[in-house]
Amino acid sequence: MSIHVAIVGSGPSGLYTADALARIWPDVEIDVFDRLPTPYGLVRGGIAPDHQSTKAVARAFERTLSRAGTRFFGNVEIGRDLSYDELKAAYDVVVLSVGAEIDRPLGIPGEELPGVYGAAAFVGWYNGHPRHRELDPLLDGRALAVIGNGNVALDVVRVLAKTQAELADSDICAHAAERIGAAQLQDLYLIGRRGPVEASFTPIELAELGELGRCDIVVDPAAVAAEVGPEIPEKEVKVRQRNLEILRSFAARVGEPKPMRIHILFNAAPVALLGEQRVSGLELERTRVVGGRAEPTGERFELSIDTAVAAIGYLTGPLPGVPFDEKRGRFANDEGLIEPGVYAAGWCKHGPRGVVGTNRTDAGVLVKRIAEDLAAAPPSGGKTGTGAIDALLRERNVRVVDFAAWKRIDAAEIARALPPKPREKFVTPESLLAAAADH
Ligand code: NAP
After folding, report:
1. What pLDDT was estimated at residue 1?
2. pLDDT score at 342
3. What confidence tens digit (pLDDT) does each residue in 135-165 have?
4. How many domains does the chain have?
5. Nearest-5° angle of CA 122, CA 124, CA 126?
């Protein structure tokens, strides 16, 4: 008897889970659902467009999706086209791997002003996520603040600071490349509420800022004189020390001034976004780190800015019927188990942390657990997987984009790109579905 598995979300956590399942059960039947017509989740819509080598993992995911016994159901949204209960009724195992795509709110006054964006929307805009294509961010000013000291914040400042030539071999969408190319930005502020030791940058990504052709990095040498203290977990120490070395090398740089600057500010907690018709300032409060936490000092200052991007983490959106942990902004689960037969994987399980490869290790652990649970309570054999689901989708006239149709989109995007650009993405549902059509 083969086991029928539904995986909801075709990003790294879902596809590494599919891969791990197929390794232990070669006969497993896996249906991978995605509400977009395109697979690979953050590999397509999140990873920075100039990080093509990281995106190359899509080739491995392509093999996962083209395995006999695995089917891709693109353009199928759970909660709209199929219900959670229908999935549970059709499959022995359901794995939810929908990620975390909602911007965590800053929770400060002025957050709703025009010119203030969350990183999910902003990154989605330059990466051609159909949902954020229309964001049309205000990039007409001189100064922009990116709030957050993680890798997403680094991605945003780097992409904005790159020249058109530096972005030429990226897959940034044409609409965003044009807008960024026309922008007159001079000062980008990268703002951490804690200190340089606590920043969650990874060294390779931090060092990349030092390679920008038209942009200086401004760091106060006194701010990066800190040392990694005993409160930092042992496994993190090397990374934090390396970050400090890189920051100090930025602070020590001399040379001809460049037309743009990235100012890296630490110990500055956002208090309010200021402005009337649109954002015009950011009020910050100096902090000191005590026991790992940012404590306010009462000393406030303002930056004059024209745009702000908050890169402070993401939340998972609720799915009708799926138990949800409101406080943490993810599915309620116990080490991945949501309820018997239903599991969570990746960011919707444990929040937005880790890099693509982290999901591979996590998938191994999750699949071991699924195997143990199935051994303890073997499936009855009554669930038919695709059979039942195909009928429902047909009945509801859902335009399913299968793997062959995705490959048509893929080929068309590659064909229409101007070299050295690797692809020019279709960014609206209509254009994606048109490219998916089998003429
Ligand atoms: P992150 O690493 O958790 O960073 C979030 C940042 O936001 C932290 O500096 C955090 O500060 C700050 N923050 C949170 N709430 C704040 C608030 N209210 N005010 C001011 N600052 C606030 O998350 P991320 O950058 O979104 O990245 C998500 C995951 O994707 C990470 O694991 C990251 O490494 C990964 N990623 C990897 C790459 C890559 O490998 N190239 C690229 C992009 C993303 P505190 O530390 O003080 O909370």
Report:
1. 64
2. 98
3. 999 999 999 999 999 999 999 999 999 999 9
4. 2
5. 75
Distance 81 CA to ligand 1 centre (A): 33
Q: Answer for the pair 50, 176: CB distance below 8 angstroms, yes or no.
A: no
Measured in degrees and rounded to the nearest 5, phi and psi for residue 404 equal: -65, -40
Distance 357 CA to ligand 1 centre (A): 17
pLDDT one-digit tens code per residue, 190-243: 999 999 999 999 999 999 999 999 999 999 999 998 899 998 999 999 999 999
174, amino acid identity: A
Provide DSSP, 17-34.
HHHHHHHH-TT-EEEEEE
- Cβ atoms of residues 122 and 413 within 8 Å: no
The residue to which tokens 């606590």 are assigned: 198
Q: Which of 151, 205, 208, 328 to mutate to test the pocket of ligand 1 (most atoms within 8 A of CB)?
A: 151
Are the C-beta atoms of 100 and 42 separated by less than 8 Å?
Answer: no
In this structure, the answer to whether residues 73 and 149 fall within a common structural domain is: no
List all residues whose CB is within 6 A of at least one atom of ligand 1. Answer: 106, 147-153, 155, 192-194, 198, 200, 202, 205, 270, 294, 311-313, 352-355
| Closest C-alpha to ligand 1, atom 18 | 106
By the 10 Å C-beta count (0-12 exposed, 13-18 middle, 19+ buried), 354 is classed as: middle
Q: How far is the CA of 191 from the centre of ligand 1 (A)?
A: 11
- Asked if 261 and 350 sit in the same domain, the reply is no
Write down which residue in 313, 335, 357 finishes a domain: 313
Claim: this prediction has a pTM higher than 0.85: yes
Atom of ligand 1 at shortest range from CA of 194: 47
**Which stretches in the chain have pLDDT values below 50?**
none
- Looking at the fold, whether 253 and 352 belong to one and the same domain comes out as no
Q: Which atom of ligand 1 is nearest to the CA of 107?
A: 18
Long-range CB contacts (< 8 A, 24+ apart) of 180-185?
A: 180/126, 180/139, 182/139, 183/139, 183/140, 184/140, 184/141, 184/142, 185/139, 185/141, 185/142, 185/143, 185/144, 185/160, 185/161, 185/260
The confidence score (pLDDT) of residue 380 equals 84
Same-domain pairing of 76 and 109: no
Contacts of 396 (CB under 8 A, 6+ apart): 81
Q: Which residues lie across from 362 on neighbouring strands? A: none
Residues in CB range of 388: below 8 A, 6 or more apart: 86, 89, 90
Q: What is the CATH number of the domain that holds 149?
A: 3.50.50.60
Confidence at residue 436, expressed as pLDDT on a 0 to 100 scale: 98
Tell me how far apart the alpha carbons of residues 204 and 55 are, in angstroms, rounded to a whole number.
16
Range of the domain at 249: 103-313
